[in-house]
Structures are given as C-alpha cells and as structure tokens.
Amino acid sequence: MDFAYILDALPDLMTGLKMTLIVSFLAIVLSCLIGLLGAVLRTGGIKPLQYAVTAYVEFIRGTPYLVQIFFIFYGLPSLGLRFSIFWSGVIALTAWASAFQIENFRAGLAAVGRGMHDASASLGLKRWQHSIFIILPLATRAALPSAMNTIVATVKNSAYLQAIGLVELTFVAVDRIAYDFRAIEMFASICVIYLICVFTISGFGYMVERRLSRPFGGR
Amino acid sequence: MLLLEFQSFLLDGLLNTLFLSSVMIAGGTFFAVIFAAGLSAQSAWLRGPVYGLVECLRDIPLMVTVLMVYFVLPHAGLSFNPFWSSALSVSVWGGANGAHIIRAGLLSVPSGQREAALSSGLRGWKGLFLVIVPQAMPVILPPYVSLVTSLTQASSLGAVLGVNELLRSAQILIEQTTIARGGSPAYLVYGSILVVYFALCWSISALGAKLERHFAKPYQRTNGKTGLARPAVALQISTT
User: Fold this and answer.
1) How far apart are CA A91 and CA A38, in angstroms?
2) Which residues of B touch A156 (CB under 8 A)?
3) Domain residue extents for chain B
4) Per-chain mean pLDDT for chain B
5) Is 80 exceeded by the pLDDT of residue A175?
C-alpha cells in the first residue's frame, strides 16, 4: 500500500466525491418528493392512477438498474429526449429511488390508523389540516427507517453511473487505475470513502429516528 | 424487425444470463450459509471479523465490489475471467445480504423449539434441519426470494466486465447496427431487454410465492403464531 500515491490522488478523488454527493443529493430530494406524491396517489382511491403508480414501482423493481441507466442515456435520445450525462444520471437515480420511496411512504401512510381521522374530525380540523398536520408527521415518522435505507442505497447506487461515464468517485478510481495500475490503493481509498459516507448518513438517520420516536405531545 | 433478425444472438445472451444468474444464486446461497454460521458462532474471535466483513460488503456499492474483485485479485495472484470474477463478487455480496436473512429467520424460531428438539433426542444438525429450519422458512423465504431476483438483476453487471450476457449482447447489437445502418436502435433493444428481465424476475417472484405458500401451510392450521411471523417491511436490497 503506497500512501504517498493515495495522497497524490486525493484531489482527484475529492472532485469525484463531490460529483457523487451532488448527484445523490439531487436524486434523494427528488425521489423523496416523488415518493410522497406517488404514495398519496397510490392510496388516493383514483383507480387508473393507482394502477399506473403500482405498475411503475413493479417495473423499476423488476428490472436491472444498469439496464435502466442505459435505456435512459442511450435509448431516450432516439425518441427525441436528449439529456447530458449528468442529468441522465440524476434522472436514472431518481427513477430508481422513487420506486422504493413510494413503497416506503405507502407503508408509512398505511401505518397511520383510521382512528386519527375520527379524532381530527372531532377536533374540527379541515381535511387539508388533517392531512398536513396529522397524517404527514405520523406517516413520515413511520416511514423514516426504510426511507433512510433507500437514501443510503441511493448514494451507493450512484456508483453505477460510472457506466455511462459520469465522473464520480468510482469513475475517477477506475480511470486512474487505467493509467497507473494502482488498483489496491485506489479501491482501498474509495471503499473507505464510501463507508464513511454510508456511516455518516445512517448515523444521522439514526439520530433523527431517535428524536422523532419520542411520543408526540404530553411529557 | 431487428430483434427477430438477431434472435439467436440475443438468445445466446439470455442463456448466458440464465447460467450466470444460476451460478450467482448458488454461490450467494453458499456464502450466505457460511456467513450466517460465522455470525452465530460461539467464539467472538470468529463472530467479530465475519460481522465486519458482512457489514463492509453490504455498505460498499455492488458496482465497486465487482470492479474491485476484477482489478485487485490479479494482484494477489488470482486471475479469473470476467465471467467467474463477476460471479464471485456478486455471490459474496449476495452472501452478505443473505446471511442476515438466514440469521433473522433462525432467530425467529422460539428457543423452546430447540429445547423440544433436544429433549426428543434431535441433536445438532438433525435438530436444526428437522425442527428449526422448516419453521424458519416462512420468515426466510420472502426476503430471500427478493434477494434471488436482485441477484438475477445483478447478473447484468457482468456486462461492465465484458461477460457476454444479455445486456452485453444488446450493447454489441446496438453498436454494430449503428455502424452498419446508421440510426441507433438503442431504445428498442434496451426497452425489449428491460421487458425480458422483468418477465424473468416476475417468474422468480411467482415461483417464490408458491414456495412460500407451501411452507406457510401446515403451521397456519395448528398455530398461527409460529407459521406466519413476517418482517413488517420487506427487506430492501440496494441494487436491483
């Protein structure tokens, strides 16, 4: 293990890490929003929309992520939708993560009991107040552990985007290996970097979970 | 039509995908059993390192594991061709995910069952396979089936290393026709193999559901508690 070499490669790896984090961040934010929307649509009672969302979730979960990426990057341009590598990456990652977030939030919504509905009706809350102040916090709390898992998986799965040439962490490492043949050093460093990212995010998630799992109200 | 024209070429790819996924599923199961045994070992000196290894494998992106095995193992004097290299890396990854599934399943069987097995003279392996494992199956199977579909999907990672499986065949087909005829048929080819993969994974899930029903049956009748314990949220595996 040549630490001087790792130190030398560190600036490159950091630019790669920055790209990984930017793409993941965009995908996480978008997929959580889509996930929430999709979960609401899936439980909303409008049949065609329900079927559409279910079909989307099943299709994404039933097909390899790598093929989805290739379809979006190489396939969509011939249908007239041309995106840069960066946006193809964001779209592919978001499309994948959304399917899982929809499931997570759907489970979260399902965990909120019917009793809440009657309770807020008896307090005279309007429908939108009930949805936003009662259902949303409770559902988010219930969905948080699995949503956190998906968020971590989103960061990990950004590594797949090296296959279409997005210059993120894994791409930088493989690119340098092609020149210098220092496979052990490069993989050791990106493994450590990925582990740090994963542990930081799951640690943060655990903190939020602990804070939110205190009962609401009375002390 | 392009797909029909190169039917046998794509079919070869599909057969390779099926073979590669079978190897990955078998290898994944093998490593899962070994890791699960390591995780429930008596000695902390064995349990600690296995736990660390399993956690690392679960937390490092699968793409990185696949590339790492391919690039790093030759430095240790172990050279595999792309097929076996991808098979090994995905198997080990599947083993790490499967180990927790198996362990959780075995732990879900109440300890009284183990004691009952012992008191009926079923020691060690006999007790494990005749008493504990059948009862753990309803808990193990649902996440395990989803792991199997994940492994099938992960076989597409072979294309990154250049294994001639379905995705690689599609890439070659697209490259060749783009050069020869102009105009990329990418959306058609990738779209159709998406459908093929979906059909494959769907069949695996359907088969798994059948198996689940089989294992859920006898316990359901006598005692709902042991037979139908299921994890509340389906285990999520990061690739797919």
Assistant:
1) 16
2) 59-62, 238
3) 2-227
4) 86
5) yes
Which residues in chain A touch residue B185, judged by CB atoms under 8 angstroms apart?
78
CATH of the domain at A61: 1.10.3720.10
* Number of compact structural domains in chain A: 1
Distances (CA, A) of A115 to A120, A121, A122, A134, B240: 9, 10, 11, 11, 37
The one-letter amino acid code at A201 reads I
When CB atoms are compared, the residue of A64, A104, A157 closest to B197 is: A64
Whether A62 maps to a domain, the answer reads yes
Among the partner-chain residues A71, A152, A170, the one whose CB lies closest to the CB of B67 is: A170
Helices marked H in A44-71: 47-61, 65-70
- Per residue in A40-89, pLDDT (tens digit) is 998 877 889 999 999 999 999 999 999 999 999 998 888 888 889 999 99
What is the total residue count of chain A? Answer: 219
Rounded Cα distance, A162 and A210, in Å:
35
Say if CB B106 and CB B136 are below 8 A apart. Answer: yes
User: Could you report the per-residue pLDDT of B98-142, keeping only the tens digit for each?
Assistant: 999 999 999 998 888 888 888 888 887 888 888 888 888 889 999
pLDDT at B87 over 80: yes
Instruction: Please give the residue range of the domain that contains residue A72.
Output: 3-212
pLDDT at B101: 94
Q: In residues, how long is chain B? A: 240
Tokens of B111: 């300890």
What span, in angstroms and rounded, lies between the C-alpha atoms of A117 and B21?
48
Domain B2-227 grouped into CATH 1.10.3720.10: yes
